[in-house]
Design a protein that fits this description.
The protein has 174 residues and is an all-beta fold. The chain has no helices and 13 strands. It has 2 domains: 51 residues, no CATH class; 95 residues, no CATH class.
Length: 174
């Protein structure tokens, strides 16, 4: 049964039908859940070890020869269909020209979900009728260039949306 902050699950033992346990599961982050087990509904059973606590997703080790962890912030300038997009190492971005939903200034973060490198943009000027957050899959496209593909994050994972991809090409420093 869904609740405001999580799921409430009642479990029943298949062999002993009178043995029931209530679990409350809350999503703590993308990689962890918080579990709280409530006493048996029919009779009290004391257990030495409790199941209550935070559980994190098991991670596979990163092969450092092939893959390095993604950096959440960079300091770089790119040209795109949106205009000139500058990422500051403070976690802010600025778009100097263009008339897209990303125009203006805002915050950004690069992160990883499963095997996908993602970029989240949160424009400062997100008003009524505009989204406060946009997530893009980052695909490499040659020398320091990459393509942004709009995605949606959900319980089934990363889902591509049917929007035109945006190519970001680095601006050569003078």
């Amino acid at each position: 049964m869904p609740t405001r902050n999580g799921l409430y699950v009642t479990c029943q033992n298949q062999s002993i039908s009178t043995l029931r346990r209530a679990l409350y599961i809350e999503l703590e982050s993308l990689d962890s859940i918080r579990l709280r087990a409530v006493e048996d509904l029919q009779f009290t059973i004391t257990v030495s070890a409790t199941w209550d606590g935070t559980y994190r997703r098991a991670r596979t080790r990163i092969n450092t020869e092939r893959e390095s962890p993604i950096r959440p912030a960079i300091n770089a300038v790119y040209n795109s269909l949106w205009g000139r997009l500058q990422f500051h190492d403070t976690g802010f971005y600025s778009l100097t020209s263009g008339g897209s939903a990303v125009s203006g200034n805002g915050r950004y973060v690069f992160f990883k979900v499963d095997d996908h490198d993602l970029l989240e943009l949160r424009p400062d000027n997100a008003g009524e009728g505009t989204e406060g957050r946009m997530v893009y899959k980052v695909d490499p496209a040659g020398d320091s260039a990459f393509v942004l593909i709009r995605v949606r994050l959900g319980t089934t994972g990363v889902q591509e949306m049917l929007e035109t991809p945006v190519m970001l090409t680095p601006v050569e420093s003078d």
